[in-house]
Amino acid sequence: MRRYLRVVVLCLACGFCSLLYAFSQLAVSLEEGAGGGGGKPQAAAASWLAGGGRGAGRGAGSAGPAAHPGPSDRYSLKMQPVERVHLAVVACGERLEETLTMLKSALIFSIKPLQFHIFAEDQLHDSFKGILNSWSFLQTFNYSLYPITFPSENAAEWKKLFKPCASQRLFLPLILKEVDSLLYVDTDILFLRPVDDIWSLLKKFNSTQIAAMAPEHEEPRIGWYNRFARHPYYGKTGVNSGVMLMNMTRMRRKYFKNDMTSVRLRWGDILMPLLKKYKLNITWGDQDLLNIIFFHNPESLFVFPCQWNYRPDHCIYGSNCQEAEEEGIFILHGNRGVYHDDKQPAFRAIYEALRNCSFEDDNIHSLLKPLELELQKTVHTYCGKIYKIFIKQLTKSIQDRYDRPPKER
Ligand SMILES: *[C@@H]1O[C@H](CO)[C@@H](O)[C@H](O)[C@H]1NC(C)=O
Ligand SMILES: *[C@@H]1O[C@H](CO)[C@@H](O)[C@H](O)[C@H]1NC(C)=O
Ligand SMILES: *[C@@H]1O[C@H](CO)[C@@H](O)[C@H](O)[C@H]1NC(C)=O
Ligand SMILES: *[C@@H]1O[C@H](CO)[C@@H](O)[C@H](O)[C@H]1NC(C)=O
Ligand SMILES: *[C@@H]1O[C@H](CO)[C@@H](O)[C@H](O)[C@H]1NC(C)=O
């Protein structure tokens, strides 16, 4: 009888132990579940509350274990080092406010920390520093300011041939030698989704793709390249370089086919002969050179849909970017100066709303109502006709980013 009792006690003890173990495993997996998706540890929730604002919490949350050792070492060791998103822009002339609005739109919606590479004319540097330093409380970005530069080897020759600002982006793989991948955007871009989303396309590149752009046109009847170009161009209607995602490691390694020599040339060696050959025939500067390069190397280009580079051309002759109607407008590109004149009031209203708003959560929420009223006034224009798509996109992006409790973000 006593032996029997002992066995029962032993079994109970064992059962209790395994129950304890199961609970502890459950706790661990819950903890990891909360910390998983996109590197947002629970520590972020705590610091979000303590930090007295979204900015502080977001910074800590996305800066990962280095900034926040977290509750236990076991937990920290499981965190991946957070990959930083590199965003480059070239700002010349009167583009200060526009560039800052673009950077702000990137900060409002993005999740991973951002590294800005800003190439600007010297007289703009102090203004950039002043404003960007005043945003540093966000702790979600770093920036580097550069003068407009050419690779030293033949800088003088380049300056003679080309307007400096117009060709800067071609040289980014050669200037930012330490950077693996980069998203280049024009100053007149506005992010309506997190930059993380377009950045994730890099992982979809197949083994031969080195860069990604959107088509210049969806509708060949109104396309520019297929009607007017006096040089080769990519695909049916060419590509637009206003939003260009690059794996620069691959760009620096690749040997490019070309129509100047029978040997393949590296990025650093192809640009000068290309420009010399085509300089009398190109209209849109470096975008034309990119079109020529990818005409000869089509396997190297990843073409993303129009909603990643949504321009007035997609709505002024009737809506022709079907993906945007179905899934939303992810990146807005106000080319033709539409943020600053009255030709496309819908584009202008979105620009002004983002330019005017500050980084506080309340402010970002309260941008929607007046914007919707503003956009309703534009329904007589083609781009205004689809204003509901703009509102839907912004509402969704703001909800995704700000309406969930901090620890789920
Ligand atoms: C900014 O750079 C500093 C120094 O390189 C680094 O310690 C910090 O974590 C960076 N912050 C972000 C948000 O990337
Ligand atoms: C430039 O355009 C002219 C006129 O269309 C054409 O004859 C010439 O072949 C073009 N040059 C190059 C290098 O393609
Ligand atoms: C860019 O390409 C290189 C070489 O193929 C690769 O090692 C790297 O992971 C790629 N970068 C990204 C962000 O995918
Ligand atoms: C990668 O995709 C491009 C565009 O679809 C294609 O032309 C190329 O052949 C593909 N490369 C490989 C290795 O599959
Ligand atoms: C933005 O601010 C300007 C002036 O500060 C104002 O005239 C304009 O109506 C505002 N626009 C929006 C959409 O908030």
From TrEMBL:
<dbReference type="GO" id="GO:0016266">
    <property type="term" value="P:protein O-linked glycosylation via N-acetyl-galactosamine"/>
</dbReference>
<keyword id="KW-1133">Transmembrane helix</keyword>
<dbReference type="InterPro" id="IPR029044">
    <property type="entry name" value="Nucleotide-diphossugar_trans"/>
</dbReference>
<protein>
    <recommendedName>
        <fullName>Glucoside xylosyltransferase 1</fullName>
        <ecNumber>2.4.2.42</ecNumber>
    </recommendedName>
</protein>
<keyword id="KW-0812">Transmembrane</keyword>
<dbReference type="Pfam" id="PF01501">
    <property type="entry name" value="Glyco_transf_8"/>
</dbReference>
<keyword id="KW-0735">Signal-anchor</keyword>
<dbReference type="GO" id="GO:0140563">
    <property type="term" value="F:UDP-D-xylose:beta-D-glucoside alpha-1,3-D-xylosyltransferase activity"/>
</dbReference>
<keyword id="KW-0325">Glycoprotein</keyword>
<dbReference type="InterPro" id="IPR051993">
    <property type="entry name" value="Glycosyltransferase_8"/>
</dbReference>
<keyword id="KW-0808">Transferase</keyword>
<comment type="similarity">
    <text>Belongs to the glycosyltransferase 8 family.</text>
</comment>
<keyword id="KW-0328">Glycosyltransferase</keyword>
<dbReference type="InterPro" id="IPR002495">
    <property type="entry name" value="Glyco_trans_8"/>
</dbReference>
<comment type="function">
    <text>Glycosyltransferase which elongates the O-linked glucose attached to EGF-like repeats in the extracellular domain of Notch proteins by catalyzing the addition of xylose.</text>
</comment>
<dbReference type="GO" id="GO:0016020">
    <property type="term" value="C:membrane"/>
</dbReference>
<keyword id="KW-0472">Membrane</keyword>
